[in-house]
Amino acid sequence: MEGRSYLGIGVALGVAIGAGLGVAMDNLAVGMGAGISIGIAMGIAMDASKKRKNKDGDHN
Fold first, then answer.
1. Is 1 helix (H, G, I), strand (E, B) or coil?
2. CA distance 34 to 20
């Protein structure tokens, strides 16, 4: 799985979360924007975690 990124998965999850937030707030546009931001943060965090695991595994 070298070279693969979790950013797309994070954005997809963020859109789903954002849609739920948007419907709950009765403002879909704001919810989607917030969800995409959350999704990007989740994707970057998952990528960083994967890189950290790979780096730690190289030392064994």
1. coil
2. 11
